[in-house]
Amino acid sequence: MIEKLVEYFQYPFVVYAFIVGTLIALSSSLLGVTLVLKRYSFIGDGLSHVAFGAMAIASVLKIANQTAIILPITVVCAVFLLRNGNNAKIKGDAAIAMISVGALAFGYLIINKFSTSANLSGDVCSTLFGSMSILTLTMSEVMVCVVLSIIVVALFLFMYNKIFAVTFDEDFAKATGVKADAYNFIIAVMIAVIIVLSMNLVGSLLISALVIFPALSAMSILKNFRSVTIFSAISSVICAIAGMLISMLAGTPVGSTIVAVDVFVFAVAYFIGKGTGGKA
């Protein structure tokens, strides 16, 4: 087994996949805690379906740099959901469901009607569930993922105190002079970036798992926001690495394997939390 792994890691694309996967897992877990506490856990699903719809448009138009189309559309929808979801006539959960289902339906309709691919079902399945696409990243795609992931992590660390304030009591944060709307906008942009990057790792339908499970695992055991965030980040990275290793050795889909490991870790954390009473 070890010899097999050593042989795999001699290939640059495998190293690239682990670098990108680790950074995506880290960045998604940091914002996951905030989203869960703000009761926006399913925003990952909604935005991932938006990204799928945007990708379908880019594919049909034969645009080489699909990220240039997918990212702006996803950012706009993220801003709409986070800034207007609770104040509009259509509330947050309903808005997410509406955008999620609508974008997924239109995306598949566009691909089905206009795509010239000889393997339409395979392409759609790969996009939705991740398949092995992370092992086929080009050097330019790797650099984009690395740079954007580092920016997200750096912004989160730099704005940690403000994000903490906006997460727990947005009205109080505004009263103390914090520009909550501006920070919500930045959070929305970071979430959109993570969603677009994560499509290569776990696919459109499984992205929310990277956001939700590490945060819930941490919250099952710990109560302090800083501790939860750190635990969430560490567990997410470990699950991503373990999932990719298992996928390589067992020949299973990368995205589904990573999510399965996340589910296992959550189950363990949940029972540990039950046993300790969540007093950590």
UniProtKB/TrEMBL annotation:
Top-level lineage group: Bacteria
Gene3D superfamilies attached to this UniProt entry: ABC transporter involved in vitamin B12 uptake, BtuC
Keyword vocabulary terms for this entry: Membrane, Transmembrane, Transmembrane helix, Transport
Protein name, UniProt field: Zinc transport system permease protein
Record's subcellular location: Cell membrane; Membrane
PANTHER family for this protein: ABC-TRANSPORTER METAL-BINDING PROTEIN, METAL TRANSPORT SYSTEM MEMBRANE PROTEIN TM_0125-RELATED
One family name in Pfam for this protein: ABC-3
Ranges that cross the membrane: 13-37, 49-82, 94-111, 142-163, 183-216, 228-248, 254-273
Protein species of origin: Butyrivibrio hungatei
InterPro entries listed in its UniProt record: ABC_BtuC-like (IPR037294), ABC_TroCD (IPR001626)
Membrane-topology descriptor: Multi-pass membrane protein
Biological-process GO terms, alphabetical: response to zinc ion; transmembrane transport
Family the UniProt entry places it in: Belongs to the ABC-3 integral membrane protein family.
A cellular component annotation (GO) from this entry: ATP-binding cassette (ABC) transporter complex
